[in-house]
Design a protein that fits this description.
Helix content is 30%, strand content 29%. By secondary structure, it is of the alpha/beta class. A hairpin with a 5-residue loop joins strand 8 and strand 9.
């Protein structure tokens, strides 16, 4: 018997256009049906859309021609199983479509996890195909889908920078300092002080007070104040915004003293891209799975998970005081939060947890 599924899709050429679609799905031998319990929606999910073609994010949960399903992180329950190793009723955490449910094909099943190798996902990166089996509510249950996927990237950037001796930088300049991935990186770098680089955040005027109140940054400035910084100090810039005008201003100010220029996100989706002939280090994109594979090979997967888990729990505890979780239910609420996030109307101190019922 087929299962009826409702899915939220967006126009890949015009993200402001979205629609709900209906389809039927069959669960075959070796497969399970996971019903979405709740998921987070953050600016990071907008980055998944903007970089969907470049980094293949659209391929995880295909939609009709010209349309896409933005991946999200959250919890689901197994409501139908034709896989002997995965019983019905089990709860999982991982990478989900914005849909009422979806079909999975669990393989490499252990007591705590499995890989979903359903059809087109079989050839995609295992970082996104790995699901954690969780039988009950966890510590920081609502914070986890809001912050942990982003914090995993933060943890990996922090580790990558330290692994490379910060490229000789004496200060790290974080653009879009109020972004959740930026906050996670600032937290990690701040814990390395005084041995690590000075941590400086660039943010908008309306978010500066919020950034100042966190205690993660040694200094915060608005975007138009970058030229007040000492251009003789070797500097690494980590850009979560993707605003070409801002990153160009940073490069032109520090020139050859800009020793590293890393792009992580595209939260300013409509901003111009940077020109190609900037002074200083050549800007490049950070791809978190590469550092994750390196450390998993060096530390073992269990060692990597342990280090990340310890760091995550510390960050979640530190974040509980400033992060306000907003819970919304239903298709209208999901579409509204998506539109507000796309328009940049979401308070950085808010985390949005969405569910269908």
């Amino acid at each position: 018997m087929s299962t009826h599924i409702r899915e939220f899709t967006v126009n890949r050429k015009n993200y402001a256009e979205s629609k709900w679609v209906d389809r039927e799905a069959e669960v075959e031998d070796g497969q399970v049906l996971a019903e979405i319990e709740k998921f987070a929606f953050t600016a990071n999910n907008i980055t998944y859309a903007v970089a969907g073609d470049m980094l293949n994010y659209w391929a995880f949960f295909p939609a009709a021609e010209g349309w896409g399903k933005i991946p999200v992180w959250g919890f689901a329950r197994i409501v139908k199983s034709k896989c002997p190793e995965i019983p019905e009723g089990g709860r999982i955490y991982g990478y989900l479509p914005m849909a009422t449910s979806f079909v999975m094909q669990p393989e490499k099943v252990t007591a705590g996890s499995f890989l979903d190798l359903y059809k087109q996902r079989r050839e995609l990166h295992p970082v996104y195909n790995s699901y954690t089996r969780v039988e009950a509510k966890r510590p920081h249950d609502d914070l986890e889908p809001v912050l942990r996927p982003l914090y995993t990237t933060s943890f990996l950037i922090d580790d990558w920078l330290a692994d490379n001796d910060f490229f000789g930088a004496k200060q790290a300049l974080l653009l879009s300092a109020s972004s959740k991935t930026g906050l996670g990186l600032a937290y990690g770098l701040h814990r390395r002080r005084p041995d690590g680089p000075k941590v400086i955040g660039l943010t908008s005027k309306q978010n500066k007070a919020f950034v100042d109140g966190l205690g993660f940054y040694d200094q915060s400035l608005t975007y138009d104040e970058v030229t007040t910084l000492d251009a003789s100090v070797p500097t690494a810039v980590i850009d979560f915004a993707g605003n070409g005008d801002v990153i160009a201003a940073v490069h032109r100010h520090f020139k050859d003293n800009l020793v590293e220029s890393t792009t992580v996100g595209l939260s300013h989706k409509d901003a111009p891209r940077p020109p190609a002939d900037l002074p200083g280090a050549k800007p490049h994109l950070f791809f978190a799975p590469d550092q994750m594979k390196k450390r998993s090979d060096e530390w073992g997967r269990d060692g990597f998970d342990r280090k990340l888990g310890e760091s995550w729990n510390a960050f979640a505890t530190a974040s509980a005081g400033w992060m306000k979780v907003e819970r919304s239910k239903g298709e209208d609420a999901i579409a509204r939060v998506y539109a507000d996030m796309l328009a940049g109307k979401i308070n950085p101190a808010e985390g949005h947890i969405l569910s269908f019922k």
